Amino acid sequence: MPNKTVIKPDWLRVKAPQQERIGNVADLLVDLKLKTVCQEASCPNIGECFAGGTATFLIMGPGCTRACPYCDIDFDKSERTLDPSEPQRLSEAVSRMQLRHVVITSVNRDDLPDGGASQFAACIKAIQQLNPFTTIELLIPDFCGDAQALQTVMEASPHVLNHNIETVPRLYRRTRPQGIYERSLELLHRVREGWPRAYSKSGLMVGLGETDEEILEVLADLRRHQVDIVTIGQYLSPGPKHLPVDRFVTPAQFEHFKHVGETKLGFLQVVSTPLTRSSYHAGDVQRLMAAHPR
Length: 294
What we know:
single chain; alpha/beta; TIM Barrel
């Protein structure tokens, strides 16, 4: 049976970007040979973020050892050595962009013994040396449940540790075939239990075939595992080879998720809009940290 056709609504229109500012950030990334998830994953907010001088840096990429059917990042299961100069180049980019808050993520590197945890730690240390007042947020993979890999990352002292739950349990086999819902929850729980000064964060996409009730159940699960911050955004299919959009969730529904999450479940912050992505307006977390110091 062919996939149903859903029409993209007006509230998902993105303003034309400021080309000059985008060019400045793009040129810097080329100069320092760095990747961003904004470019590799075809993020709809790339214009706004690049125009504002921000970017989410993608390390150890661009090829990913998992082939999640919703994601636009290239699949590459071959063994690849890590670039020892990457942490220093990343730190220089943070300095040249004068970032007060930086987000670092990676592809899945299941080919590495520690999943790339040591590279995350090296990047944190390099940034701290050159940019001591910059807060650091990591968006990490699940490291296949390796507790030692998580410890390596957390002992480098990121301010925010993000790991996306992505979708509801019922859709994991189709959407995240190599992921395990309970394993992701356990990772987030370990962060809060082992490193209570760090802020924990997770995110999910909507529009993949889940129900509103299932979304609220995931929010309840995240809160039971002491997650502080949640992002919720509309899934947009990157192309015909990827999972189709099942529905477009209305702004009113996104606002309802935010209301339930913050007022009933007790999250410190729920960022819930159609165009929200994991690191969209991530710099706002500095205000949250000031309001809820640890």
